[in-house]
Structures are given as structure tokens and as C-alpha cells.
Design a protein that fits this description.
With about 190 residues, this protein is α+β, with helices and mostly antiparallel strands. It is about 25% helix and about 35% strand. The chain has helices spanning about 5-20, 25-35, 35-45, 50-60, 65-70, and strands at about 85-90, 95-105, 110-115, 120-125, 135-140, 140-145, 150-155, 160-165, 170, 180-185. The strands form two sheets. A six-stranded antiparallel sheet has the order 1-2-3-10-5-8. Strands 4-9-6-7 form a four-stranded antiparallel sheet, with no helix packed on it. The longest helix is centred in the first third of the chain and has 20 residues, at about 5-20. It is globular. The chain starts with a helix and ends in a 5-residue tail after the last strand.
Length: about 190
Amino acid sequence: MSDLDLLTRSLARNVRRWRAERGFTLDALAARAGVSRGMLIQIEQARTNPSLGTVVKIGDALGISLPTLLDYEQGPAVRIVPADQAVRLWHTDAGSYNRLLAGTEAPGPLEMWEWRLMPGESSPSDPHPAGTVELVHVTAGELTLTVDGVAHCVPAGASASFEAASAHVYGNAGTEPMEMIMAVSVPPVR
């Protein structure tokens, strides 16, 4: 079974499980996540490979992290993720990518990401639930972080934090690859 098959089946099982645990109907989850009921049915039946944006919206609506939503192994209290098992969820032909390094529920979803953006590339993000905070640390190049339409330059060695309940964009306006580590903390669903 391929990694994609494992992730598709894990996503199906975990969306069903967490939807039931939260007491959400298909219609309720679809409305909270901003995705169609038909898409949720296809996901829960492992008949589709949804976009990263769709998976993020579902995780946010359920109040769980992407690692929990995509986890196909229930591990021990200490979980080590080998480098070759970090999940790459987005990439471009030019070489930009992000990788989900680790995550947990504490008390809401908490995720750690590795990002690489090639010169001239950017990645927009829809607003996250109110109370979501993102922390970034740039390890190479310079990040252009745009939040609410205002651009902020974050050079290598610098860090930034922001409330992610508004649209934001990670960009590289420089001439060399930009690399950063990012942590995302989402409040628990109430």
C-alpha cells in the first residue's frame, strides 16, 4: 500500500471518528469547514485525495491538528517522527514545499512545520479560527509575511508571531531560497 493510500484511508477513518466524537452531522461539519457535503462523503469513504486547503479546513472545523487527522498509527506517549516520515503536503515544480514535522493536541492542535519557498514564490493561507497563533523562525533567506494586507520582512535568524485569524501569505521576494520553521497553535473546539 502506498503512502498516499495510507493517508487517504487514515483521513477517512479519522474524519469519521472525530466528527462522531464532536457530535457533528455531515451537514454541520460541511458548514463549519466550508466544504461540500459531497466532498466530506468522498473523504469519509476514502474515494478522494482532497487538497491541503480542504484538509486544513476540516481539521480547523473539528479542532484537531493535521497530524491527528492524518495519523495512521496510534503511538506511545513519546512519538519520534523520522525525517523520512515527515509528510510533505504541498510543493511546486520550482522546489518550494512544506513538511509537517510533528504535532499534538495540547489542549488544541499544535503543529510544527518546515517550509522552503523558492525565489518569487508564495503560499496564501485562508484565515484560521479565532485564537489561532502562528510562530515562524527563518533559517535562510528572507520571508515576506503579509498579514491583513500588510507586508513584513523577516530575515534569516529572526522570528515572528501573529494571530492567524485573518488571511496571510508566506512569500519569498528575494533571490535565494527562504527556509523557516513554523509552529501553529489552534484553540480547542468548544
